[in-house]
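hi! just following up on the protien thing from before. the input was this:
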Amino acid sequence: MRIDRSHFSWLLFTLVATAFATLLYTANFHPHRLPFHFPLPAFLGDAPPAREARGSAPLGLIFGTLAFAIFLFASALGIRKKQRLWPIGRVRFWLKAHIWLTIFTIPLVLFHCGFHAGGRHAQWLMVLYVIVMASGFVGLALQQFMPGLMKDRLPREVVFEQIPRLREQLFDAAAELRERLRARERTASSAAHAAPVAVAEDPSVRVLAQFLDDDCLPYLAARRGDRLRLGESATAGGIFRSIKVSVAAEWRPNVEALEQWCNERRWMDVQTKFQHWLHGWLLVHVPASFALLVFTAWHAWAAWRFISP
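and the predicted 3d structure came back as:
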């Protein structure tokens, strides 16, 4: 999702909520740093608390619980995307909430732990949290400039899920041309046997057939076309210019068709690469988010066992 003006209200909410959480944290744990007295509810206990552990203090538990609730909400985004007909808010709203509420967890987590990682379990939990947030920010950054880059680099885009089928169609079209050339070669060979003096082999057919066998068909069938000669735009342009001057005029439309098919394959390869960049961060973000949710639940259970009488 691209960040635009429609996100302003969410940005404002995050800033105000962060400022309020900062005020509560400072008034509860460092009241001497405030230039004024800020009264706190009685259920938050003494200010500052007698116990050193910030996370087990009432306000620390509130910060931690709120952060965990946001983690649960953020993990539900995948379900919401699959159930688009559910009347529980538009997907775009969920995406905005996912972005800004998870950003709001940064001060919540820091205030919950008191800016200290704590023991080994808490340290691993913090590492997971950093991985999730860092991968999320990478994905958010990619979504800001990748669509514009794709628009500039690609003459046209196709539906990403249809790319394998479209590549097969390009290969089939080139293979059909190769079969027509084989039929032409067989006809010329038969005629040559019947009248070897009167019939000469068409050099254009030989040039096109060799190009299809050596370069075009392997390129259109390759899983990684960028590793072959036709996968590089400048090299491919030179090859096709050479072929055009090597064949008769009647065959040049076929050469131009082959060039267009190879160009389309190259554009689809570029689009595939961009799509992998655009969504590759999810390979880290999604499993790390799941692990973070599990570890946070375990952390909450251990904390409850520790503070319960």
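The chain has ten helices and no strands.
The chain has a mean pLDDT of 89.
cheers
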